[in-house]
Amino acid sequence: MSTPKILIIDDEALIQEVVQGCFEDLAGWSVITANSGQDGLDQALAKKPDAIALDIIMPGMDGITLLQHLKANPVTQDIPVILLTIATGFTDRISYAELGAIGAISKPFDPINLVEQVADFLGWTLDLKEKCP
Amino acid sequence: MGDTIYRQVMPYGVAAASTAIALLLSLWLEPFSSEVALFYLAIALTASYGGIYPGFLTLVLSSLALYYVLIPSVPRFAVDANSGMELAVFALVGGLIALLNGNLQASKYRAEQLELQLQEMNQSLEKQVQSRTDDLKYGADEIQDLYENAPCGYHSLDNEGRIVRINDTELRWLGYERSELLGRPFAQLLTPQSVQRFQECFPRFKKTGFVNDLEFEIICKDESLLLVNLNSTAIYDESGQYVMSRSTLFDIRDRKRAEAALTASQARFAGILDIANDAIISIDAQQNITLFNKGAEKVFGYSATEVMGQPLTLLLPKRSSNVHQRYVSEFAQSTEIARQMGERGEISGRRKDGSEFPAEASISRLELGDERVVTAILRDISDRKQAEAAQARLAAIVASSQDAIISKTLEGVIVSWNASAENLFGYSAAEAIGQPIAILIPPDQLHVETRFLSLIRQGESIQQYETVRRRKDGTFVDISLTLSPVRDAKGTIVGASKIARDITEQRTLDRMKNEFISIVSHELRTPLTAIRGSLGLILRGVYDKKPEKKHRMIEIAAQESNRLVRLVNDILDLQRLESGQMKLALEACDTAALMQQSADAMRAYAEEHQLQLIVIPLSVSVWAAPDAIIQTLTNLLSNAIKFSQPGGKIWLSVDLEDRAEQPVDNASGLTKKAADCPLTRVRFAITDQGRGIPSDKLETVFERFQQVDASDSRDKGGTGLGLAICQKIIEQHNGRIWVESALGEGSTFYFTLPIVEEQAG
Q: What is the ipTM of this complex?
């Protein structure tokens, strides 16, 4: 399998930067970024990523609305979406599943946990870079 | 009548007849006798028989007979002296005879009449005497009967005290025959105690002549005792010697029994008086206390001996004693027998210790001979008053409660409904009471109500159950419900009380609180996420061979740490300002100094953004907490810098607020005095040439986390709380903060502060 391409959609630039670091530098995946809902939708349509890591709370189009758009669009509806969320109660998990997300990861997160969970949700094999003893 | 005529005419008939007989006999006997003698005889007989007038008639007839028949020598119708003389003599003699016989006859008749009268009188007298005799006899019998059978005993004792006379009644009482007692000493019949009394009294009685109301116990023949009351008078002879007594005795056994019964009854009555819990007090006409029962002792704290004879006013509060006295006098004079007191107000009593108590009293009047005794029955109702007051307090609590308080039967019928229930549900008490509680319950909730009622029947309570109820107008209201069983005096559950609290507002607050927590949570977790991720990557050693990347990650961590610190500080500041924990200490400050300090703090930041910070100082003394005002000014300057384009200008100025520019409303805390004097405030202005604020956001920018653009907090490093903190600080100065803005041209933030009085004056 070629290097998977994952789209990160988060309005917080620094979080975006850190998550990008995790995916690229730790997991070895290819990353595309978007800093708003609309930007994310555009990138998803244009670049057809293998997966999307989506922040929920964003100004303008929020993560939930974006997810509904993605699932409504035949081009993007099969792209697996993982939510990066602050509130991750049990009920929230159910509603995210109903909305079509394959999983949710709560912030803050440990970089290794993040990539392991994402790989797990997506069924990807993970070859962690720069392993430390 | 015929008889009378006959009796009157008869003598005249006799006169005619006797004359005729005398004439015939004279004619027959002529040769042998004198011719006149027979006529005299006829006159005498007739007069004797018929009286003087028939006698004279006989005389006249006889004279005529003699003249015409028997004296033939006499020529008819001529009178000679001789024969005339003879006739005259005859008439005279005959007249005398008639007169005498007539008188005789009249006397005889009168004598007969007198005798007749005498006989009648005699008879009448005899009758009267007989009648009188009868009367006397009857009277004597009656007196005897009265003596013997009077309803009292009579007896007489002689000088030695022996019975000389005794009536039947007393004999009957004693059971003796008269013969057994006559001559026997009265003292022999008496009990020893009575004997002693008799011996003491009898000698004195004989001297004084009377004795009254002596009580003796007499032993009857059957040995039963007769109790008598004895009165006696003595009879003396002409020389003043005692003859005998005349004693009357009354059987007083019944009276004694009645007296004993009365005494017992009085004792019982006194007992009842004493066990009564109510105070029972009698007063005489002078309103002095004559009766004071044990209940009164308990109620008033006086002993009966202390108050007997004391004026009633002792038991009354001084302020009302006159009124009471008048009231009691008026009642005593009235025609009423009894009356409830205090219809127009409370009666108060005064205890021995001077304390007063509310009382309930009734008053009644009793006529005892000439005296009017007024009795009052009085009850201390302090406890009841307290209970009533407690109940009134409870009722007031229910009435004034902010919560709807409703009670209902076990069948769910509404029985009480307070004012808040009216407000909450829209039904008036009159509309709701008697209705089923189901009128308030949405149909899909009815089964819950049924379950609650069954729990109530089991004595369970339901605490703060949050549910929905339907108002009269059909709208719904969120309520918190507390249900408890209502028990009667016997402890039987008879219904349920229901306290319903409108939690609409609380829900709104909860929602706001949840939203705030959610936002704060987001705002805190966002920098933490960046810090945790960047540090995680460094720790993992991912960038051990990429020092630039490693540095960048440390930078991110540091930057986000600062953001976190600012956020936490702002949240704490705001919390302290809102909760009142942070009380700003106001002092007289110089506006120019405040402006300068703030500008100095921000100058470097402005230069960093290539902005010119222009301060137009004005020195005015204001009431302010200098640190808080500097925080406000730096915050506003910081915002102005953040949202300005490089090369722009920022102005910081102060001026005296013109009255015309003062807001009309008082929300800013303007005092009346401030409004009267146009120069009581200064107004700070921070003006930028930035992008401006949309008009719909001019108010909300001062709310928490209500930035015009949420991304500003990341890009500009704000927390979203700065303006909220500014607003709180200015509010605590009784000032006002607001913003005026034109999109694309810039904004001016204003706030006002009060001027120190002396300078303002």
A: 0.90
